[in-house]
Specification:
1 helix; 4-stranded antiparallel β-sheet
Amino acid sequence: MRVIPLTVTALAAALTLTACGGDGGQSDKSSSSACEIGGVSVQIGSASVAPAAGDTGEVPVSITNHSAPCTLDHFPGASLSAGGAEVEVPVQQGAKAQKLKLAKGDSAMFTLSYVRGGAGGGSGLAAKTVKVSLPGSGTARSFPWSYGPVAHKGASDAPDASVSAFQQVGD
């Protein structure tokens, strides 16, 4: 009859540890804050440049965490600047954001796709820089844009460009 009291005692102890969040002292990764430029490096990789007007190009942007665990929750931000004008790049149609947690040393990436405009002032945005921001971060990083003019979307002044969702890189 001693089996029942020991079993009940063991079960009660297990439930008590579970209720207390007995994770063995490990921190909860879900409490990590938003990734910030400065804590992560942001780099533009080798682009698949659109060679002629009407062609599509892709510019990969990689993010590597060099600090405490952080989270990428939503879409990246990007804007193209030409002269005094700055134009936001929209999210790729149909893209679905995913929440990525980056431990120190982890990497993620997204792609900025664009349609090349023709040479000359009226046939596209003569972008000089691209500014990249991370969701939940108040800072951005600018990079030179050397991929030619970006076509306008339809009759609007909006750029024919888009950003994809973040994707985990590596394991």
